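Predict the assembly for these four chains.
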Amino acid sequence: MDRKDIRRIAVFTSGGDAPGMNAALRAVVRTAAWNKLHVYGIERGFEGMIDGHFKRMERRDVANIIQRGGTVLRTARSKRFMTPEGRAQAAEHLRSYDIDACIAIGGNGTFTGAKVFSEEHNIPFIGIPGTIDNDLFGTDYTIGFDTAVNTAIDAVDKIRDTADSHNRLFLVEVMGRNSGFIALHTAIGSGASSVLIPEAETNLEDLKNVLKKNKARGKLFSVVIVAEGHPMGGAAGIAERIQDELASMEPKVTVIGHLQRGGAPTALDRLLASRLGHAAVNKLMDGEENVAVGIVNSLITTYSFDDAIHREKKPESALITMASILAI
Amino acid sequence: MDRKDIRRIAVFTSGGDAPGMNAALRAVVRTAAWNKLHVYGIERGFEGMIDGHFKRMERRDVANIIQRGGTVLRTARSKRFMTPEGRAQAAEHLRSYDIDACIAIGGNGTFTGAKVFSEEHNIPFIGIPGTIDNDLFGTDYTIGFDTAVNTAIDAVDKIRDTADSHNRLFLVEVMGRNSGFIALHTAIGSGASSVLIPEAETNLEDLKNVLKKNKARGKLFSVVIVAEGHPMGGAAGIAERIQDELASMEPKVTVIGHLQRGGAPTALDRLLASRLGHAAVNKLMDGEENVAVGIVNSLITTYSFDDAIHREKKPESALITMASILAI
Amino acid sequence: MDRKDIRRIAVFTSGGDAPGMNAALRAVVRTAAWNKLHVYGIERGFEGMIDGHFKRMERRDVANIIQRGGTVLRTARSKRFMTPEGRAQAAEHLRSYDIDACIAIGGNGTFTGAKVFSEEHNIPFIGIPGTIDNDLFGTDYTIGFDTAVNTAIDAVDKIRDTADSHNRLFLVEVMGRNSGFIALHTAIGSGASSVLIPEAETNLEDLKNVLKKNKARGKLFSVVIVAEGHPMGGAAGIAERIQDELASMEPKVTVIGHLQRGGAPTALDRLLASRLGHAAVNKLMDGEENVAVGIVNSLITTYSFDDAIHREKKPESALITMASILAI
Amino acid sequence: MDRKDIRRIAVFTSGGDAPGMNAALRAVVRTAAWNKLHVYGIERGFEGMIDGHFKRMERRDVANIIQRGGTVLRTARSKRFMTPEGRAQAAEHLRSYDIDACIAIGGNGTFTGAKVFSEEHNIPFIGIPGTIDNDLFGTDYTIGFDTAVNTAIDAVDKIRDTADSHNRLFLVEVMGRNSGFIALHTAIGSGASSVLIPEAETNLEDLKNVLKKNKARGKLFSVVIVAEGHPMGGAAGIAERIQDELASMEPKVTVIGHLQRGGAPTALDRLLASRLGHAAVNKLMDGEENVAVGIVNSLITTYSFDDAIHREKKPESALITMASILAI
């Protein structure tokens, strides 16, 4: 791959949407324009690639979107792209638009699709990690994570008002699929009594003891954060297992739900998305391909799709320990 | 009852908490202080009245609480107060503190307790309507309703980001117990496609047709607001009944939940709570008793506990009609 | 004017923008569409009318704007419209598009222009009151007022954090042009120590005494809200007059500024704008003309442009009194 | 210094307040309690140290403060502490309470005071960097910076609504004292047209050309972010220099002001403050002294007070370049 070759690129968002995807798209389009590249936006991810939904994007087309949640290119999960026929059709469209390279904004599934496709059809890809779950190896933060955590904390702050007024126990379930990042950060940020995540063993006896001790010590209410992917069945599963013994605390379950995916991105997500979108174009120009961009120790980096897909990223155990010390 | 008699009053919050209760408490305490009354705050509503949890409250004790959700006096539902023995004990405590009258901040259940108690023990009460549900006859607005609606709309605004990005159908359940006020106002304010409330008949065929027509017309996603008290079983119940036929829209259910009870009160709730708290003391001074204060057509008014408890308040049908015209 | 005649209408926003204008526009377009009227949107108010910037608007053109601040039709102040020549050109454009009636969303200046124009060129107008200042006679609330007050209160809540931490005096200036509505409602809602508005006499000696007494009583910080139109020169003017005597409180001036005009509209502003936009079309269909729609005591009403322009609306004195009692 | 020696510590906040200081305080108190240390909180920083305003703080005393802006210990700037007599008096109080070490939460001025004092009176200090300005060498982020940037961006998002509606130029001044971090991050996050900071040369001709070119290219409004410490006199100074030439854009100045200091801390600030408060106690237990804790490349680190005070931290030039590319 040679720098001179990259003249026309395509960009799309795929998989679950995340706040900041628009900021990343804006950065891709403007950095590309600054480098005299032509950019095409593909609607609805791999679905639009198969259906040929391409549109030319210039600087002004990404004006006034940096602050918007969701993705103006829309997104989808594509079953057809899992078939060789679907991918062949997509490749045809890319060729008909003379696309030299693609930038894919999404998570694990997106990168898996990109890897298979680029190997099959020899079109270079750069990935930008966009998912609220922060579960991608290779980057300290994914786009949307900080916004989701802030939204969850804001919700828990509100729930505390009512928990506090009623002296109650609340089990609050947050998103994150199989990963506990959102739950752990929400728990620390909201001063929760406890946090239950898939990455750490859950001892229900300990949990019950902590809650009882807290009450004995004068703590008037308790909030426990549970990751949706918790193997005991999320917040509802935990509640079922403890409610008899803690009935006097009137345990309530609340699932924060899809609002965690939306909303104006935070400052950090806008900055991260801008940096990663900008870097993705620069890395393409530098001749890199089939890697994702990321941020590690505040610096831009790249990592292979394989690593992103197969290696596991886990919350630091030091943070888990700290959370329990500060919750006392 | 003669004005000179009111020298010492007690105030408490009871039932479900609502944002703005603190602002009402502040207004009660400061208006009372301005009128040289002594004020006692009772903790945890009727429970604290039975247990004698009274504390003297002066002007500075309600500083810096106008912006806080929940209630600093805490609240509870009291089973003991439903027994004559419990109420006798409460009356004893009021007498031992020489309380001439009580101000109760709460909803239907609170007013019912106040009515029974004041008849039994001859202690004058004034009620202040505090409930997010807005289901109290006699007042156009209850304290907390505007905040709850704003919280729900903010959540739906966020859900729209992701609904829009995925071209999906969302069924969003909001609070309100048996009443559809929160649902109707949330639906109008969030531009929802449809709203299902207990006070209006639900025709599922119409609903499905509207959603299909919208899609045919180019509407890319739909949000339907469902009141938690909807007789078909809230949002989950509706989803079950329509999901087969609308499977292509990938219907998702989300329950906004307890965060609707919390948060800093809105401007309107702070103003309303301030006016009602101020009026409650003034009405007591004027010799009124066993009524609740309210706001009708922007003016302070009073209404009997009986009316508040037994008469029904329903959303205006004109608003329901307008909601469906604007949703098209 | 006869109901049958109204087939095609134009709508525009003019003067200062206000949150909720988009919700009003949406309601106009959708109610008109429901009544089979054709709607044209005019860009940049009277400027666009003179320049012929009209565009057909259908139901889907106002999708997804109810939550946006500002106005998608943009707005402007037009000097040319103050000349007979400018207005003649505007009338020509309206005729060339066969417009039967206009709906103008704006404040005092907008209604003045509408009145002069409709008299000169015999085109019926309906006004919708949109201004954050709430200074229009004939309606209890104008579109944007509730949002502006909430924004101001949110800002003061933040300023209190720092005022409280430093034991300081803050003079906070809010918008409102010559009117004190925003200031008064912000002061009540934020629990300010005092409020200075053009509609009430300001006694600086009293102000200084209140602040000193508060300090003596243990109040650790004070926030004074000043209307921008205060005749002593806003917050800066007041500060100059009191700072020597209150130097120990380290008085700081902060001007909240233009952010009060923007942001997603509140629930109340979305509902109000929806109701007024809906009513404006209905009133046109009913044959009314050259009036503005409004809301008085929760009911839709109309009032002449003359009243809106020439009669004065003032904050209730009872609220001013209450504010000072609760501030103690 | 030996671990066994640290039995009683004091903690205080000093200088300008910053959101997250309460979260840091909570982490200090709870980590200390977990380590069986006794903690005293000192009110109003060095002022309270001189006046002997100490209070015992236990776990429950820092409950429910993680989400609050400002500082519950209050803060002050102390002239008396700049004199040897003032410091001697402070040392006396520390000795009378048997304090083995102090933890100081604040910025540059706080660390300077700590350094002088600990040298004079041989009491070990650990500093925690709390300032919205992010201008402290030795740590990537200071507590409060992320919140301030989010508040500023939220304000600019609102100002854009009105700027966009009117096709106007806004010059928005943000805080940061002599540093441009807040301005640069706000500009990137809000998609501003340009940013003017003390650390980069300002070429007014370039600025005017960019704004004119943007307008020619169809950009309908422009927002320029100016750091308060900009040597040309902040936003007002810049406006004065460009307004004649750009009069057609109706340039407006708005100063966001003190609200940037307040508000509930963001997720990141709560996490950062928790980590730094936790680390400060751990470092004390490890025998470190007269250093500040910080975070560099996501890892906890320490640095001498001298470095914090005398070495300069500047925004990365790569970010400044990126900001201008993305603004196009």
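The interface with chain B takes residues 26-27, 30-31, 33-34, 59-60, 63-64, 66-67, 140, 146, 149-150, 153, 157, 160, 164, 185-186, 188-191, 217-219, 264, 266-268, 270-271, 274-275, 278, 297-299, 322, 325-326, 328 of chain C (CB under 8 Å). The mean pLDDT of chain C is 95.
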